[in-house]
Amino acid sequence: MAALARWCYRHRLVVLLLWVGALFGLGFSASTAGTNYANVFSLPDTDSKSAYDLMEKAFPNTSGDTDTVVWKVDQGSVNDQAVRSRITPALDRIAKLPGVGAVTSPYAGPRGAVQISSDGRIAYAQLTFAKRANEVPKDLVQNVLDTAQGARKSGLHVELGGQAIQRVQQPPQGLSEMVGIIAAAVVLFLAFGSFFAMMLPIAIAVFGVGMGLFSTQLLSHTTDIPDIAPLLASLIGLGVGIDYALFIVTRHRRGILRGLDPEESAVTALNTSGRAVLFAGGTVCIALAGMLVTQLRFLDGVVIGTSLTVVLSVMAATTLLPALLGFLGPRVLSRRQRRRLAADGPEPERASGLAARWSTGVEKRPRRIAALALVVMAVLAVPVLSLRLGATDQGNDDASTTTRKAYDLLAEGFGPGFNGPLQVVTEGGDTTALVKGIETTPGVARVAALPPAQGVTVIQVVPKTSPQSKETDDLIDTLRNEVIPKAGAKAHVGGVTAVSKDFASVTGDRLPLFIATIIGLGFLLLLIAFRSLVVPLTAALMNLIAAAASFGVLVAVFQWGWGLDLLGLGKEGPINAFLPVIMLSLLFGLSMDYQVFLVSRMHEEWVHTRDNARAVRVGLAETSRVINSAALIMVCVFLAFVLSGDSGAAMAGVGLAAAVALDAFILRTALVPAAMHLLGTSNWWLPAWLEKRLPHLAVEPSEEAEPQLGEGPASVVHGFIRSADGEPVDGALVTLLSKGGRQLDRVRSLADGSYILSVPAPGTYLLATSATSYGSRAAQVVVTDGPLVYDVELAEGEVDAVN
């Protein structure tokens, strides 16, 4: 890793040109090829899949998207000449547009009468495009929308519904990503205080996500990738890209402040935090690949798009980032930090401020903090008991959209079940008994048998209840388990509503296996990384707690409707069936990042001191600020996807934002360290027999090879600590650090101000001195073969800012 980082740093122009060329090359290819996203809900061995196969056999040429034009009059009837004279010309103009296959008007003969409501105030026309919704040009759809709504007048309302219409009313593509980047930039500037340092994580995220999206777009021509995959890839790619760069840039800035040369600091940062980024990115990809165990084809494309974006973000962080660090040099620090470094010399790392105080507070009151954190998470998890999986439709759109208005008009005129009719499909035989049986079934509003085609008969069944209601799900079960067998027919229940129900059932059945897979994998990875049984067990439990609480928030917002109007997210409904799998995968991968970053520092301190309380306190104090900053960036990026206009992406954004916030701000900052204080040395217990059999995995290796001590130190540093007026300073804390910042020895000065520190070998070290009421001082010392005399002067009342 060090060799790669050094090469990229020294050949920074070449690396930058390669990345820019790759980004523009992929962008040009993707824009030329266009998109071919496809939502394939392939559910083998399900009743709705059998119905779909029969319909495809009977009606092979019905692949175009079918949308709806709905109109309503406040007074009179839709059959009035004044209404017909405005609607009919509009429908005729739409039918003549290139790309529109057919328009079925309610005014076209006796068959059109069924498209007029019983009270005569609402009617609809169906228009069929020549292509699927994602392939229909937006200009054509906008033309259809404008033409239809041009027929409006006072007392005549015209609205449109359908997938193609839904696409053109969404916000401009990239709006949510741009808002997320701006929010992340604000957080980064507050964290770094430097414009150049702020831009580094943004640039890495843009390159990683941009190349990931272009690659996914090209792959959509060779495999089935759902249209939500690019949104989810952007969501996770922006989050991890900015976070991974943040970890590395933070380590690099810390190295420069300690006196390292910018090149050496960059190499050290990549060889330490860069390795952790590789590990974290790998765990995210493995967690995403865990979705494949569900064997749901719809999720295969999501795995491809998101995993590819994560891989490219990791590549950008480990190759492009060191090149950019080479261009900036010391300017990665703020001007104030550069002036202080030039005037006062290198600074030692010392946890201070709120992070240090909080860490000390957790150590003093672990039971109280753990209990409070558990209560908060338990309360938030209560709504998950009401979780109901399903599928969102245009009835969940915002009330101001034309698709939602069209949905509501159809429900008003033809019943709530009209927006999600069921299709009972049978092949051969007499369907008379089956039709009669369906007509007498409670919950059925209307039944219509279509003329047979290729020996296949389709019976349209309109429920009395909406597609998302539990009563409609119960009706599907009744038809399958009672009505069809009683009629002696071999039939299957299909349609969008039945497919959604089967998808939710299959997902629910396979969810336990999926959870067991990713939890077991996380346990194994942490077991190898930290040589402990308790640490991975704690992490697995925390992941389950975080998942329960985040899904509780999701149910309260999207299923119960709390805050939906405030967020502008439409109407409440069931949770998308695919969301638990996607959210759990991403939550597992992201929480592993924070767990590794937090516990690796604790583990490092434990290895050197064998003091659990100190290890937990120091680890939390030194990492909580970076973890919280990274989490805040993730939350901003995820919440920005509420603006995407896609209900699935908005639901995923809110759910992941809640999951990351709860995981970082409550679990990793409070519950995990409190639990580790309570468990004591048991945190690091591993049976000897297991220790011998486990492979060794260095998540974040030591920053430099430490010299081996013999029977005594190779040399010493000694001298006096005095005030500005020459008085000895008693009890000053004097610390000897390696160039990478590792503590090698620490003593307190005696009454006469003298001190003596052990030095393991000749070399360059960092000597840090601090005392109550005095400033903190740090300087590089070079030790040769003999003892080094080094006196330190502390100015009373002066306080140096220490990073």
Automatic annotation (TrEMBL):
UniProt keyword terms in alphabetical order: Cell membrane, Membrane, Transmembrane, Transmembrane helix
KW Magnesium (keyword) present: no
Domain Membrane transport protein MMPL: 42-368, 464-685
Primary location: membrane
Protein name: MMPL family transporter
Subcellular location(s) per record: Cell membrane
Gene3D superfamilies: Carboxypeptidase-like, regulatory domain, Multidrug efflux transporter AcrB transmembrane domain
Source taxonomy: Bacteria, Bacillati, Actinomycetota, Actinomycetes, Kitasatosporales
Presence of keyword Metal-binding: no
InterPro entries in the cross-refs: CarboxyPept-like_regulatory, MMPL_dom, Mycobact_MmpL
Family: Belongs to the resistance-nodulation-cell division (RND) (TC 2.A.6) family. MmpL subfamily.
Topology in membrane: Multi-pass membrane protein
Membrane-spanning intervals of the chain: 174-192, 199-219, 231-249, 276-296, 302-329, 369-391, 511-530, 537-562, 574-592, 626-643, 649-667
